Amino acid sequence: MKRAQLEHLIRACSTIAEDDEIIIIGSQSILGQFPDAPEELLISNEADVYPRNFPERAELVDGSIGELSPFHQTFGYYAQGVGEQTATLPQQWQQRLIPVANARTRGATGWCLEIHDLVVSKYAANREKDREFVRAVIRHSLVERETLDQRLRQTELDPRLRSLILGLVEQDFRDAA
């Protein structure tokens, strides 16, 4: 997904949900902080979103412009309506959101995760596609180890998952060096 496509989704989600603030919590939230992110980080053709002021309308978004919808078939990308609880995020993540608002969003604001918060959520999900995404982020030097460690300490995690993640972070930074 390219930045212009994310802006289109923000505009469409805002119209559907009648909410001019949309939270983007999936991998494509990287486009907020890094509009020209490396291609390997832009593979996904969907953005995980929910209306900030009316989160219950995420299902409406999903039903209108979600996977296999006419929107998806027409444009080749789509919005997946999710809930805030979909991602495991550090404390105060909402204070670090990156706004995407311009003429192409027609007055709506897409609020994207800050990169370290996004990476924490990907480590917590621990799916193979998330692991690949995180390794690419580290290879491209888009995160700082110290900040990532701090955000992990600010994240409520099961102790076993925390231990696993700490090992993965160590390995991923070592492999990227």
Secondary-structure blueprint:
Elements: H1 3-17, E1 21-24, H2 30-33, E2 46-51, H3 58-65, H4 70-75, E3 78-81, E4 98-100, E5 109-112, H5 115-125, H6 128-139, H7 145-153, H8 159-176
Helix pairs in contact: 1-3, 5-6, 5-7
Protein name: DUF6036 domain-containing protein
Organism: Enhygromyxa salina
Domain DUF6036: 9-152
List keywords for this structure.
DUF6036 domain-containing protein, alpha/beta, 8 helices, DUF6036, 177 residues, 12% strand, 5-stranded mixed beta sheet, 2 domains, single chain
Helices and strands, in N-to-C order?
HEHEHHEEEHHHH
Q: Which consecutive residue ranges, at least 5 long each, have pLDDT under 50? A: none
Shape: globular
Strand order, main sheet: write it out. Answer: 3-2-1-5-4
Number of domains as seen in the coordinates: 2
Distance between the termini: 28 Å
Strand content: 5-15%
Largest sheet: 5 strands, mixed
- Mean pLDDT, to the nearest integer, reads 97
Any idea what the radius of gyration is? 16 Å
Main structural class? alpha/beta
Number of helices: 8
Report the count of strand segments. Answer: 5
Helix content: 40-55%
Organism: Enhygromyxa salina
Domain DUF6036: 9-152
Pfam families: DUF6036
Protein name: DUF6036 domain-containing protein
